[in-house]
């Protein structure tokens, strides 16, 4: 079954009122610029137009403040998706990481399309980034999702996330939204620096697809470590090991969330296929509050 038609129905149920965010087409966007709608105040900086100075607020606070207004204009969305071996495994018993990631990408694409915005995918094929031209046509977005899905395999090359994000920065020529859908990664200093630079150019949001807990007895066996191509030992089903692994996963998730918070990046973790659409819609609505 085509992914976008299925996701589109779920989006219609999840979005019962106007979505607020940068994916809304001609809408109150996160961009600031010339319009009649007031957005907020901020301190005057060199190069600002003196016509934007709010003299009443300046007199009231003693600080030179300018008024920012909401700009009405269309946006461009680029979904940067880790593919290859990273999405070939399970996120939970019976839940494929590939399906969570592609459903999230389809949800973002449908939201963009609903308001006339352009959307496109960026993924890796045999380790090399491939960027599809942003489009407003759902049939083109479905083809992009299909092409990305075809690169997910236990035998595929891994995605270099740093390289993928570097390509994302070069793909969108004007400010837009970059949605990163990645497996469970820890943001090391190099990757954090890359996200910081990307955030200076675009609004960034981040969706994490978790790895399945290998000590979960519901998985059954035998289990295979896709990165190493080796079978996991049977003694993994140990309660103490399971607790230690759960603590380590929680630590990684906390470190990632803290790093993204420092960078002003909205973040969510996927897990339940039944709530992927709602989770993505909720994340888009939170974009305004993490800048």
From TrEMBL:
Pfam families: DUF58. This is DUF58 domain-containing protein. It comes from the Bacteria. Residues 40-247 form the DUF58 domain. InterPro entries: DUF58.
């Amino acid at each position: 079954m085509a992914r976008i038609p299925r996701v589109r129905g779920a989006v219609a149920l999840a979005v019962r009122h106007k979505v607020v965010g940068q994916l809304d087409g001609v809408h109150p966007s996160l961009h600031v610029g010339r319009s009649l709608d007031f957005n907020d105040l901020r301190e005057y900086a060199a190069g600002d137009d003196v016509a934007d100075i709010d003299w009443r607020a300046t007199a009231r606070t003693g600080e030179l403040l300018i008024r920012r207004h909401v700009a009405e204009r269309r946006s461009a969305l680029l979904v940067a998706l880790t593919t290859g071996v990273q999405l070939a495994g399970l996120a939970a018993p019976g839940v494929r990481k590939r399906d969570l990631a592609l459903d999230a990408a389809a949800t973002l694409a449908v939201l963009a399309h609903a308001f006339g915005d352009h959307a496109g995918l960026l993924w890796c094929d045999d380790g090399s980034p491939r960027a599809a031209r942003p489009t407003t046509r759902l049939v083109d977005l479905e083809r992009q999702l299909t092409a990305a899905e075809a690169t997910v395999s236990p035998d595929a090359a891994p995605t270099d996330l740093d390289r993928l994000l570097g390509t994302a920065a070069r793909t969108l020529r004007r400010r837009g939204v970059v949605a990163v859908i990645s497996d469970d990664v820890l943001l090391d200093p190099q990757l954090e620096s890359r996200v910081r630079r990307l955030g200076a150019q675009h609004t960034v949001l981040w969706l994490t697809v978790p790895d399945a807990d290998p000590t979960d007895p519901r998985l059954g066996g035998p289990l295979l470590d896709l990165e190493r191509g080796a079978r996991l030992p049977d003694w993994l089903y140990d309660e103490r090991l399971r607790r230690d692994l759960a603590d380590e996963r929680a630590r990684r998730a906390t470190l990632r969330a803290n790093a993204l918070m420092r960078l002003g990046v909205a973040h969510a973790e996927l897990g339940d296929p039944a709530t992927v659409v709602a989770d993505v819609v909720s994340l888009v609505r939170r974009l305004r509050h993490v800048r």
